[in-house]
Amino acid sequence: MPPRTNASSSTADRDIKRHFDKIPAVLSGPHKAGPRMKCKWCGDEASENVTLYQRPHILRCAVYKLEKEKKVIVNNQPSIRNAFKPLDDPKDLFAMAVYTSTANFSLFETPEWKAFFTKIGFKPPNRNQLAGPLLIQTYEKLKPQVLEIATAANHIQIVSDALNTINKKKVENVSFLINNISYY
C-alpha cells in the first residue's frame, strides 16, 4: 500500500476533526489534563490525538453510525415529485405544478396571470378543468406509483386534518409519511 501524503492525511484529519469539539486544557487543580476532544454525536471525551482516539472512535460511535444511516435513507428516499413520469402536454404539466404546489385553482385567473399567460402564448386550464378531468387523469396516473412506494415501505405514518370551507363544506385531508417525506 502506498504511503499517505501529508495533503491527503490532513484532509482526512479535518474530516474526522469536524465531528469533535475541543475542550480546553485544565492547567491547575487536582484534575490536570491536556487538551481533550468531545464527540459531537455521543459526548464521549478523550485525547486530542486524531490517529489514536478520534478516527477509531468515529468508526465505532453508535450515535454517529445511526445518524449517518438515517441521512442516507432520507437522501435516497424518492419523493413524490421524483415519482412523476415526465409530462409532454403543457396543460398536464401546468396541472401537476398546481397540484404539487397546493395552489388554489382560481389563483391563475387574476388579470396579472392572464396577461402573463397571454405574453408567453399559453392558455392554462381553468379551475373547472383543474378540479375535474385533469385532476382525475393525474390521479389515475399517480395512484399506481404511490401504491408501489407505500407497499415497499416498512413503516407508514398517517396524517389527517379536517376543516370547514366558507360554504360550510367539510374537507378532510389525509396524507402519509415515509421517512419524513409526505405523500398527499
Radius of gyration over all CA atoms, rounded: 27 Å
Tally of contiguous helical segments = 7
Report the span from N to C terminus: 52 Å
Tally the structural domains. 2
β-strand percent reads 15-25%
Number of E strands = 6
Lateral strand order in the biggest sheet = 1-2-3
Query: What coarse outline follows from CA principal-axis ratios?
Result: elongated
Give the low-pLDDT segments: 1-8
Helical fraction: 40-55%
Largest sheet: 3 strands, antiparallel
Reading the helices and strands in chain order gives HEEEHHHHHHEEE
Structural class: alpha+beta
Average residue-wise pLDDT: 78
Structure overview:
This protein has 184 residues and is an alpha+beta fold. The chain folds into two domains: 6-76, no CATH class; 80-154, no CATH class. 46% of the residues lie in helices and 17% in strands. The protein has helices at 6-17, 50-60, 62-76, 90-101, 111-120, 127-131, 133-152, and strands at residues 20-23, 36-39, 45-47, 157-164, 170-178, 181-183. The strands form two sheets. A three-stranded antiparallel sheet has the order 1-2-3, with helices on one face. Strands 4-5-6 form a three-stranded antiparallel sheet, with no helix packed on it. A hairpin with a 2-residue loop joins β5 and β6 (181-183). The protein is elongated. The protein starts with 5 loop residues before the first helix and ends with a strand.
